[in-house]
Design brief:
With about 140 residues, the chain is mostly helical. The chain contains five helices and no strands. About 60% of the residues lie in helices and about 0% in strands.
Length: about 140
């Protein structure tokens, strides 16, 4: 009489009482349910159909003018046309927007103002002669 197969190493392994179970050995990670495996198989089938369609177009002896890659089209749409539905205004993005919009303006305002004040102070002290501008040389 044949005995039952020994349990797998995953079933025998248990976490140490002094430490938690590593994420790599968590049964939820590697022991996927049949429903999860079915969904993954469906996704893989869709990807393989799209890949086969693309390769057929690519290796066609008389190829069309433009070979469309549906994944690339979806990616380009998500990156260019579909920006606002995926953008979340947060305090960080609001702060960064203000810094990038107002930061350079305020920086140059203070730099030019400090330079003008420094020159004016030197003119009042008599250490700097104000340049004279004439229209006719």
């Amino acid at each position: 009489m044949a005995s039952a197969p020994p349990p797998s190493a995953a079933k025998l392994y248990g976490p140490n009482s002094f430490s938690s179970l590593p994420a790599e050995l968590n049964p939820d990670t590697y022991d996927s349910s049949p429903e999860k495996r079915r969904v993954e198989a469906e996704r893989l089938a869709i990807r393989s159909r799209l890949k086969r369609q693309y390769l057929l177009q690519l290796n066609n002896p008389s190829p069309p003018a433009v070979i469309e890659n549906p994944a690339l089209i979806r990616w380009a749409y998500a990156k260019s046309q579909n920006v606002y539905p995926t953008f979340r205004p947060t305090p960080k993005t609001s702060f960064l927007g203000a810094v990038y919009a107002l930061g350079p303006l305020l920086f140059w305002f203070f730099v030019l103002k400090a330079d003008r004040d420094r020159k004016e102070k030197r003119i009042q002290e008599g250490k700097y002669k104000r340049p004279s501008f004439s229209i006719f040389f």
